[in-house]
């Protein structure tokens, strides 16, 4: 990863001489530095967490970190269905600049980030629950699952679905794969029918009703602005790669040809505010919404080879147990839907995998009684 970060930073600095975008290069390098810092810090502390006293500290810290998300998420959930808790938006505004009415976003700036944090929390809490049963942690997990399901987030469902499919493919659990896909389809159809009959109306639920009118891929593409962005922006990144296959456009420069490609291939998309803003107001905020597409567009074949080499080597060397393997593919699924090198959840999880926490950490629970009365307590 250091080799990729070094290449990407150097490449981005070199492009400054071509386009003069110093600020853009600084921002790009900063995201790489943040990602690396979280990754190495997580690896270091993941090794410490395998000691009893630090293991307990990590669990308590994790619980405290998720308390605000869960409490506010529960209030947002109630407001989503009732619409009677107007004060919830005021509370949310203390944590997030953008407030999404009648949607679950926890303390995050947007609902998709909240789903990312919930999935990360579920992986960690489920791990802690494995070695020693705890009613409190089980309650936290159930609460997070309810928030995740009732968010009606296509992004969240997609990330979880991808990670499960990749996990079952690479662990050769083909029968489970077909069964899992069938269960997901049944749940999806059932959820859609329940929501349509509920009479509840908000942004997330209304998207399900639009699915009834889909007859072609074009209908999916133009279902709404979010679908259009999630589908076309990664494609635009790939088109940029085809145009600049060896070195790409340089780190942080995928926006350079965005407008021209958008108007050439997907001109209908300018009717959506987010797309119009990216194309005509501030094109520098454009990103491909997919880390692999971003690397292809900005770093070319050299960059994607280095990054894939890191991931393949990482998987072969550090992913030993079922938890670490699934967590790795969860990170891959997130990379397929986010494109920032500073996605902290991903580097946190990768660092914990590398440290052996998910594989050896269970021994801490099994060899030491760290739970009393179903809740972690100190020796004092």
TrEMBL record:
The chain crosses the membrane at residues 25-46, 58-78, 112-129, 141-170, 176-200, 221-242, 295-315, 327-350. Keywords: Ligase, Membrane, Transmembrane, Transmembrane helix. Coiled coil: none annotated. It comes from the Bacteria. GO terms for molecular function: ligase activity. This is O-antigen ligase family protein. It comes from Scopulibacillus cellulosilyticus. The lineage of its organism: Bacteria, Bacillati, Bacillota, Bacilli, Bacillales.
